[in-house]
Amino acid sequence: MIDPDIIVLHPEILVPRIDKFIADNVDGVTRSHIKKLINLGNVKVDGILASPSMSVKAGQLIEVSFYEEVVSVEPEDIPIDIVYEDQDIIVVDKPAGLVVHPGAGNHSGTLVNALISRYPEIINVGSADRPGIVHRLDKDTSGLLVVAKNRNAHVNISTQISDRKVNKIYIALVKGHMSDQEIFIEAPIARDPHNRKKMTVVEDGRYALTGVRLLESIREFDLLEIKLLTGRTHQIRVHLDSIGLPIVGDSIYGLIHTSINRQFLHSHFLEFHHPSSGEMVQFTSDLPYDLQAFLDLIR
Description:
The protein is α+β, with helices and mostly antiparallel strands. It folds into three domains: 6-65, Structural Genomics Hypothetical 15.5 Kd Protein In mrcA-pckA Intergenic Region, Chain A, CATH 3.10.290.10; 81-162, Pseudouridine synthase (2-Layer Sandwich); 167-298, 2-Layer Sandwich (Pseudouridine synthase), CATH 3.30.2350. Helix content is 18%, strand content 29%. The strands form three sheets. Strands 5, 6, 7, 8, 9, 12, 13, 14 and 15 form a nine-stranded mixed sheet that branches. A four-stranded antiparallel sheet has the order 1-4-2-3. Strands 10-11 form a two-stranded antiparallel sheet. Helix 1 (18-25) packs across helix 2 (31-39).
């Protein structure tokens, strides 16, 4: 019996189909079993959910979890701000405080519970515990997030994210000042060996790249535009803290401030190719009231 841990594979050549590659390289599993794991959301490529026919490039990281617990997600009537929707996608402006999908300690009251109440057809799109979800925002990060309404859209957008073709721009306020008008932070990220709830910059972590541009200096703070060029857990928060620019209000990596009760981080701009038409689509979200009010306070 396979132990329910994560197996990590690093293909050295182009892999035409991920399901066949895993079945050929992991003892004791069939291709149909691998397809089941993929449909449960248990297989990721560079952190992005895989599809059975997905091709994988040399050097990409494949993670396979054999833990097959199916989480039951119940619909809940939770109000959400829909920026755009059509037959393929939903673009949500997520408020701070709303968890994206069920997990440890959050079995209800999530964005996914709200989505399946409003769009029951997405229940079988992607994995059982996060239907429709192709990327996430931290609980206390607000702003834009795209959701897939069907399997084709799910695979298409997941592939765009994996290929770094989705443009995601955030607004952040940090304590301290940039050394230059524009910088790139290139530093590998992994889980903190001393605190499993945190991520940190470590030499043998996963490659991570963040673009940072100064928008405005306000007293002891800098208002920044952040371009997320890879998608590691807590990447923006970890990278900024690693160069001595902690995000204001971030209780884990940043700087707690009495006048703001969450991290000053907002998903401001989202751009990608529409999964059906192929046309480039763009969405923008202004700073929410709490963040704008804090800016007004310190100006």
